[in-house]
Amino acid sequence: MHYEGTVIRPPSEAHSIILQVTLGCSHNRCTFCGAYRDKRFRIRNDEEIGRDIGFAGRHCRRQKTVFLADGDALAMPYPRLRALCRRIRRELPWVRRIALYANSRDILRLDVEQLAELKELGLGRIYMGLESGDDATLAAIGKGADSATMIEAGRRVRRTGIFLSVTCLLGIAGKDRSLAHARATAEVLNRMQPSQVAVLTLMLLDNTELGRQARQGVFRMPDRTGLFRELQTMIRGLELRAQFQANHASNYFSLDGRLPRDRERFLATVEQAISGALHLTPESQRAL
Ligand code: SF4
Q1: Number of neighbouring beta carbons within 10 Å of residue 152
Q2: Ranges of each domain in the chain
Q3: Can you tell me the distance from the alpha carbon of 202 to that of 165, in angstroms, rounded to the nearest whole number?
Q4: I need a labelling partner for 236 at 20 to 30 A (CA). Which of 109, 154, 246, 262 fits?
């Protein structure tokens, strides 16, 4: 299998065949994200992708799912993506589902019928980065979409029945907007009704604009208690029937379950974290 640079995939795709069909991210402007700073966005050609599918056909017969990397494979032109899904079905017939990262702009380029056709061809899961439901925060971090656009994109995916996993980022609004961010994020998620919410905690990276703003004192992270109160406010505001995971390596402690079933257990754990009764992941062991 041929990979260029660092390949990033969601934790739940750990056992998937990773096909790097695009390189980097077509947006690449989020101020907190250092994932693809060193990569110029490009869609790999059919020959390159075909060689990797051939490799998977010979060596990955036990892996039942495919993840299309890098940052937003949905940026591929629709006819090519459709042909790619058909090819995966033809050449890797044991694969049960295909997944990818997508941003709201690329989702909204497709109508419901096109998304439904991709679902028919195996696209079963889309991971979308919301980060925040707060418009001021979305603008400040250069996300390239406001909350209304995010909601529309999320709803469009859900109308097709594709599993929608949405990522939110604790700390991304900074200290002053922390709770406004938590409330607005819960509100946007409620209107979107994703299948899964994944909560990560911001890590400031040296190679990012937000890292630079933090060094200059322009951006101030909430402290740990502030981050936990942000999570508490978010959970209290959520009215979802969805998987809820805050078990990424960037978090100080782990939550994993379903809403609304596990809400009280989650809130009790967050309360323990606030009171100092919970073991927290040491700073040195947090990771992206
Ligand atoms: S957060 Fe996502 S959309 Fe933003 S630059 Fe990084 S990969 Fe691209």
Answers
A1: 15
A2: 11-279
A3: 18
A4: 154
Q: How many CB atoms are located within 10 Å of the residue 90 CB?
A: 10
Measured from the Cβ of residue 46, the count of other Cβ atoms closer than 10 Å reads: 14
Q: Which of 167, 81, 170, 90 is nearest to 129 (CA)?
A: 167
Of ligand 1's listed atoms, the one at least distance from the Cα of 8 is 7
Mutate which of 103, 104, 172 for ligand 1 pocket (most atoms within 8 A of beta carbon): 103
- CA 12 to centroid of ligand 1, rounded, Å: 18
Chain segment 151-172, per-residue pLDDT in tens: 999 999 999 999 999 999 999 9
Residue 57: C-alpha distances to residues 17, 95, 194 (Å): 10, 10, 33
Query: Measured from the CB, is residue 30 less than 6 Å from ligand 1?
Result: yes
Instruction: Write out the two tokens for 18.
Output: 């990773």
Question: Which residue CA neighbors atom 6 of ligand 1 most closely?
Answer: 33
Q: Which CATH number fits domain 11-279: 3.75.10.10, 1.10.630.10, 3.40.630.30, 3.20.20.70?
A: 3.20.20.70
Which amino acid is it at 236? R
Integer CA distances (angstroms), 235 to 98, 102, 174, 188, 208, in order: 30, 24, 19, 13, 29
pLDDT tens-digit map of 111-154: 999 999 999 999 999 999 999 999 999 999 999 999 999 999 99
Atom of ligand 1 nearest to the CA of 26: 8
Query: Which of the four pLDDT bands, split at 50, 70 and 90, describes residue 20?
Result: very high
Ligand 1 centre and the CA of 31: distance in Å? Answer: 9
Beta bridge partner(s), residue 69: 20
Two structure tokens written together for 285? 């062991």
Q: How far apart are the first and last CA of the chain?
A: 24
Report the distance separating Cα 230 and Cα 223, nearest Å. 10
Q: Ligand 1 pocket, 33 CB below 6 A?
A: yes
